Amino acid sequence: MKLTKMTALAATTALCAPMAMASDMANEMTIVSWGGAYQESQLKAYVEPYLEMHPDLKVIWDESSAEATAKMRAMTEAGNVTWDLVDAVASDAMRMCDEGLIAEIDHDAVLAAAPDGTSASDDFGDLLVSDCFVPQIVYSTTFGYRMDLVGDTAPSSICDVFDLAAYPGKRALQKRPIDNMEWALYCDGVAKDEIYDVLGTDEGVDRALAKLDSIKDQVVWWTAGAETPQLLADGEVVMGSTFNGRLFSAIAEQNQPIDMLWDMQSFDLDGWVVPADLPEDRKARVMDFLKFATDTQRLADQAKFISYGPARASSAPLVGQHAILGIDMAPHMPTDPANAGNVHVYDYEWWADNRDDLDAKFQAWLAK
Description:
Number of domains: 2
Number of strands: 10
């Protein structure tokens, strides 16, 4: 549930003060992200330009974003939070916010306005799904497949993933219930607008797992976004889910014999969260970096390196060509009309409310 702005204002008084002087900021910052091509895009678009202005700063990368909620819980309980800035999906940010693990942020006080003066909150708009969350990108989880391993007819439907007769071979799926459960129900005949109603029942959960059972012995489970592109490149799987930007990197930058299956791609949001109760010098450094890294130009710059849509409305017109390849990036975005004919709209709040329960049931099913 989105927290009230009044609550956020009360909780972020310290963050609304003028930015600290450089001498008051920590000279080391640990950023948690996802590794691979995505983290490289953050390095190029945000971190390297920031380090040019702050050469004495040391940035440490941690690639644990997939486990952000569990690790934040453990560090907070131990009273030893070593992270400074965490890249998280929207539903995880909502969970951590509800549990008090991350700080609430007054977006208009902390973040840069758009070049025309539009406030940050208006520029991000509906993507501000939590007062603890600063959106960065719109991305999708979708499927890639080996063009030389799928026969004469390439897969065109998400349900081809469940068709072992037409497309024999291993599949790669993320080791979590999100997306897998929705795809399973959809391919078992549930209408898109009824998926979460069905999944909210014990019978619906059983139905989704039964559908996944039909391919379970042909699944390679992944936890890091870079795994599926590598599995596809090595020919270890015929098709596999991952984030669309990882597939773009494999196809456009590495020239792998891979193509994309956009049907029922799952739209999601990714952005920054700040651990609660950071020491003042670390908080000052993080907030200074956050203002820089989420301004209009920086979010547009990230799209030069990976095919994720910037979360600011003012950034979209600035998206141009790939920084190295020189190709137009717009057609490679998940939001391009040619790619968005049948989209699954991920329900952040539903998963924030139900994730722990579904995680437990999914892990129990995996262990069978």
